[in-house]
Amino acid sequence: MSKIESALNKIPGKVVQLFGFVKSRLSLLWQKIAPRLKPISFASIKSFVMRFKWRILIVLILLYAGSKTYDYFFPPAEKTGGPTTVTTVLVEKKDIPLIIEATGTIVSNGIVDIRPMVTNTVAKIHVKDGQEVKAGDLLFTLDNRNDTANYERLKALAEDAQKQYLRAKELVSQNFISKAGLETSMANAKSAQAAARSAEVQLSYDFIRSPIDGRAGIVNVFPGSLVQASNVVTTATSSTATSSVGAMVTITQLNPINVQFVVPEKDIPILLENQLDGEPLTVKVTVGDSGKKTYEGKVLVIDNQVDPAIAAVRVKAQIPNDALTLLPGQFARVSLVANTLKDALSVPSQAVVINPRGRIVYTVDKDGKAVLKPVKVVYEYQGTSVITGIESGDKVVVEGKQNLRPGGKVREAKPESAPKNTPATEKK
Questions:
Q1: What's the CA gap between 166 and 310, in Å, rounded?
Q2: How, if at all, do strands 410-412 and 84-90 pair?
Q3: Whole-angstrom Cα distance, residue 340 to residue 342?
Q4: Please, is 291 exposed, middle or buried when counting C-beta atoms within 10 Å of its C-beta (0-12, 13-18, 19+)?
Q5: Residue ranges in 247-405 assigned as alpha helix (H)
Q6: What is the pLDDT of residues 155-205, one digit of tens each?
Q7: Model-level pTM greater than 0.85?
Q8: Which residue has the higher pLDDT, 47 or 79?
């Protein structure tokens, strides 16, 4: 028999000997402490319970609630019936645009109410409802007969005065008149020319032209309408005269068009930072309830002051409107790309769990076990959260986390790809 086999045969005897020694020592210890223990009776237990019953009840309730709470957030592995099936997403570093959402109003780049400069009667109308016009296009012609006659008269007087002045210059050179006479003739010529230019300006008021490119609205006058140099347009019909406050027509520039909105004060540093970098801020705009059509544009200006009443700054952006589908006054939803988060780590928002420890996520290690990681949500937008506390390459549990506890075995379902470059906005 070898030495190993001999040693193995001696083990059972040694175990029995050791057990006997421990038993004897415990017996001696009990003999020493037993006389010192007070006898415990039913009456003493009842007295203790009645004396501290409310405290005992509260402690029992707290212990029960704590136990249930712990089991809820950290269910025992034996209750799960084996490995928990989960769905994970592989975390990767991505550049994620930071988006600020706002509501605003579509506004025109330029709106001009066409009003007369003089009181007169409309002779001709050269524009139709909804017509596209260019700057300088003739819109209305007023009754210009009197103004034309006055201009022609003063123009003729100016021409005659100019001839008299030239004749006086010849006479002065021949010493037939004095220099004082020449100066008088020159003054008369200049006065006559000024009167003719004034009459020409007065005549121009009878030809009303568009000052901007745009589209005409509804024409509010008719041939024969009396218009006044005020906000009142008087329209004459065959039997009545109706006065209404308004313009002869309104010219609205529709392409390009603007959207005006406000940005909260807390987001202003983000806007200004990008503005200082010289990068134009981009916006995406939707109008109406459908939101099917998205318009893209650039920020024109950020106001120089914050409105203290709403703690926000006004922002104006310009949008191409080739199809003329955007109209001033429409309600608009604006998404402004304020910045870009470089090499950000993002997960679906449903992967983030809130428990007594704060915000956490579960990851799956190389051994297929759940690992609890505390995280901090930096930005959140439309189901995507940008977080810190994880690393690129981590497998984050998205579905099935409610049955997990740290160290529990997991079984991965078909893995999903990492979230795409979903825009993120500053958390409100």
A1: 70
A2: parallel
A3: 6
A4: exposed
A5: 268-276
A6: 999 999 898 888 888 887 777 777 788 888 889 999 999 999 999 999 999
A7: no
A8: 47
